Amino acid sequence: MKTIIKTLVVITLLQITACNNKKDQTTAKHNHEKHWSYAGETAPIHWADIEKNSDCDGNHQSPINIIHKQADAVHGISDLKIHYSPTTYIEKVENNGHSVQFNFEAGDSIHYKNDIYYLKQIHFHEPSEHKINGVMYPIEIHLVHVNKTGQITVLGILGEEGDESQLFEFLESFLPLKNGETKNIHQQLDLKDLFKHSNEYYTYGGSLTTPPCTENVNWVVFKHPIILSVEEVLKLKNNMPVNNYRNEQALNNRIVNYNY
């Protein structure tokens, strides 16, 4: 009888251990599969926890709230030269689950801080990620440029609602896009309408605003917003996650320059 009891105890313990191991494996798998998003347990405030090998908990993060009167004014000296051509081609557009992104073929570039950065893609955040004097705009466009060594400069352009924009009408002609869907385009696009007020802008050193939140990114945020219609804002919004913006990050003694 004692032998039978001992055997039953051993079997029970083995079953409990097996269940716990399975539970632990399921939990570990669940944690491993967590992917950043803009809501719930994987929202921006949790990025540093779920993206372990990222810079998301760094001290030079983006976006920031730009306070105009606290920026260092730089008059008549511009480190930025925009070399955009009306014959540059959009390669494709994709809904990557976080934003609508247009990828570009080689062509457009900027000259910034004695280096050349090539336009790779543009994408959108709704509402804006950067603020100016605490004001959050309905939308923000990020034009991502990369130089030959992999360094990044992003032009940030804010948008406010008003008249219809021919540029946005063209871009949105390729929408809607389902999550994960891609459309090939290979059409020319002139982006000059984005830079009607390109002589006034803020610059600072920050990061990507999505994981891995890589730091040492050059940011150029234009002071004056572009104009697009309410309908155009809503069409972009309907093709992206709700509130696909990262919360404001601490400035941490960084210097913001105002170029005019």
From TrEMBL:
Residues 34-260 form the Alpha-carbonic anhydrase domain. Keywords: Lyase, Metal-binding, Zinc. It is an enzyme of class 4 (lyase). The keyword Protein biosynthesis does not apply. Its cofactor is Zn(2+). Its EC number is 4.2.1.1. InterPro entries: Alpha_CA_prokaryot-like (IPR041891), CA_dom (IPR001148), CA_dom_sf (IPR036398), Carbonic_anhydrase_a-class (IPR023561), Carbonic_anhydrase_a-class_CS (IPR018338). One of its GO terms (molecular function) is zinc ion binding. It catalyses: hydrogencarbonate + H(+) = CO2 + H2O. Reversible hydration of carbon dioxide. Belongs to the alpha-carbonic anhydrase family. This is Carbonic anhydrase. It comes from Seonamhaeicola algicola. The lineage of its organism: Bacteria, Pseudomonadati, Bacteroidota, Flavobacteriia, Flavobacteriales.
